[in-house]
Design goal:
about 130 residues; alpha+beta; CPE0013-like fold; 2 domains; 5-stranded mixed β-sheet; 3 helices; elongated
């Protein structure tokens, strides 16, 4: 029977969990150290998801980019689409932490949110804040 190995990230242990399967059906799961691990591997086998963190351009702020993240995990096979859509975005300061950047990324019903606040600054203030090398 075919098997796949996963490194569980549900807790700090990092167990190596083995899944025995036939087609799309899990026959056995072994090697997990807690109930969270078993559930994590089931989800990872059937519907692997990742929280996507990246940055987007922002105008009139101290920094040229602002960190963003998806509110929950997006399907792994949608990550490229999500990155393409996020790269099209350009915000304008001021921006508050938790602001919705994209309401529904790639038809997943998952919003993209800012991960920090950035105030609006003038061009003069941006020039003054640059580090002289």
């Amino acid at each position: 029977m075919p098997t796949e190995e996963y490194t569980c990230v549900a807790c700090p242990k990092g167990c190596t969990v083995e899944v025995e399967f036939e087609g799309d059906e899990i026959k056995d799961i072994s090697g997990y150290g807690c109930a969270k691990g078993k559930e994590y591997v089931k989800n990872e086998f059937h519907d692997p998801r990742r929280i996507l963190t990246t940055t987007v351009k922002i105008k009139n702020a101290k920094y040229p980019r602002i960190p963003v993240r998806t509110e929950t995990g997006v399907p792994k096979d949608e990550l490229d689409c999500c990155l393409d859509k996020i790269n099209e975005v350009e915000l304008e300061a001021p921006v508050e932490v938790g602001e919705v950047v994209i309401e529904d990324i790639c038809g997943t019903d998952i919003p993209v949110l800012t991960s920090r606040s950035l105030e609006r600054v003038s061009e003069d203030a941006k020039e003054k804040s640059k580090v002289q090398l």
